[in-house]
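Good morning,

Attaching, inline, the backbone tokens for the sequence recovery test we're adding to the shared suite. The designed sequence is right after.
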């Protein structure tokens, strides 16, 4: 696992979901949850599949991560909108909600790195025994969520 791709992808996702989170919360952008939720689940499945099918990060991955971040921001906005906040409380809620999401994301990445990747990333079996099974689990979960969300509507 190389650090540079992570340092590009995490901010790309963060900026994208921050933008759509804000735009959606203020009613500037709107997309039905019937579309957003299955697309979010499908984006998770896609990343898992791409990790299985390619051993190297593609040049378009940061753009793809940015686009997925746009979708996820709309999904986060749906969760935040359920609080039915007065307009004057939206900005503080956006900032704290976004900070919490980012802290959680960075915590998961750091924990995965320290607990697993740091110790075994240079092993010849790392991809076959860790990356591919974990990615298959992620892809399967994403596909399950996609079907679940499509059939729920």
């Amino acid at each position: 696992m190389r650090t540079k791709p992570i340092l590009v992808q995490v901010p790309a996702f963060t900026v994208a979901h921050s933008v759509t989170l804000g735009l959606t919360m203020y009613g500037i952008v709107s997309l039905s949850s019937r579309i957003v939720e299955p697309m979010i689940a499908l984006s998770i499945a896609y990343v898992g599949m791409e990790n299985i099918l390619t051993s190297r990060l593609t040049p378009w991955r940061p753009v793809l991560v940015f686009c997925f971040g746009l979708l996820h921001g709309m999904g986060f906005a749906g969760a935040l909108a359920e609080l039915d906040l007065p307009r004057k409380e939206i900005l503080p809620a956006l900032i704290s909600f976004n900070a919490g999401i980012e802290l959680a994301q960075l915590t998961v990445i750091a924990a995965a790195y320290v607990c697993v990747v740091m110790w075994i990333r240079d092993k010849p079996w790392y991809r076959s025994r860790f990356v591919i099974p974990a990615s298959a689990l992620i892809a399967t979960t994403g596909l399950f969520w996609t079907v679940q969300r499509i059939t729920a509507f």
